[in-house]
């Protein structure tokens, strides 16, 4: 799979987890299997962000056509990080943070899938994206082996 296919798959998986967490009764603490689900969402998003920044953004950060988008994307990643930290504190407010996380993530994903990824396809080419896909798969395998 190409880097873009893999990153899109991450987006779908994360959104699915966010939507499952939204089904938790309002006012309930995040615990048990839901806390475990949040843990998986947090690891998945943290790894996704890391992979994008190290492999994908890195090669687009110095190109005229994408440098502004990449700068903005870094900021958006930090927003997602902050919301994950907010949700990690035991509090009933986690629902509010989840709503904010969903909105921020959705906005960011739309930008990536509609603007950044098509540009990357054009600027980097199929071969480069295949190669990046292999790198991403290797990082994920390594993580799975040490988890
Ligand atoms: Fe991103
Ligand atoms: Fe992404």
Structural notes for this entry:
- The longest helix is centred in the last third of the chain and has 53 residues, at 94-146.
- Helix 3 crosses helix 4 (94-146).
- The protein has one domain (3-146): nmb1532 protein domain like (Four Helix Bundle (Hemerythrin (Met), subunit A), Up-down Bundle).
- It contains 4 helices and no strands.
- The model has no long low-confidence stretch (mean pLDDT 95).
- It has helices at 3-22, 32-56, 67-88, 94-146.
- The radius of gyration is 16 Å and the shape is globular.
- With 147 residues, the protein is mainly α.
- Helices cover 82% and strands 0% of the residues.
- 23% of the residues are buried.
- It binds fe (ii) ion (2 copies).
- One fe (ii) ion binds next to helix 1 and helix 2.
Global outline:
globular
Indicate the low-confidence ranges by residue numbers.
Answer: none
User: Can you list the ligands bound to this structure?
Assistant: fe (ii) ion
Category by helix and strand content: mainly alpha
Classified in CATH, the superfamily is: nmb1532 protein domain like
Proper CATH architecture:
Up-down Bundle
Quickly name the level 1 CATH class.
Answer: Mainly Alpha
Number of strand segments: 0
The helix content is: over 70%
Distance between the termini: 23 Å
CATH topology: Four Helix Bundle (Hemerythrin (Met), subunit A)
Which whole number gives the mean pLDDT? Answer: 95
Indicate the radius of gyration in whole angstroms: 16 Å
- Count of discrete domains: 1
State the major sheet: none
In terms of DSSP E residues, the strand content is under 5%
Helical element count? 4
């Amino acid at each position: 799979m190409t880097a873009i296919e893999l990153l899109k798959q991450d987006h779908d998986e994360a959104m699915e987890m966010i939507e499952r967490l939204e089904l938790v009764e309002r006012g309930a603490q995040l615990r048990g299997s839901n806390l475990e689900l949040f843990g998986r969402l947090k690891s998945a998003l943290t790894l996704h962000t890391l992979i994008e920044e190290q492999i994908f953004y890195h090669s687009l950060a110095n190109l005229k056509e994408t440098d502004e988008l990449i700068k903005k994307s870094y900021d958006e990643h930090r927003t997602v990080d902050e919301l994950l930290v907010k949700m990690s504190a035991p509090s009933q407010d986690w629902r509010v943070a989840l709503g904010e996380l969903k909105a921020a993530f959705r906005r960011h994903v739309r930008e990536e899938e509609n603007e950044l990824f098509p540009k990357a396809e054009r600027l980097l080419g199929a071969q480069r994206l295949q190669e990046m896909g292999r790198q991403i798969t290797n990082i994920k395998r390594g993580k799975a082996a040490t988890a």
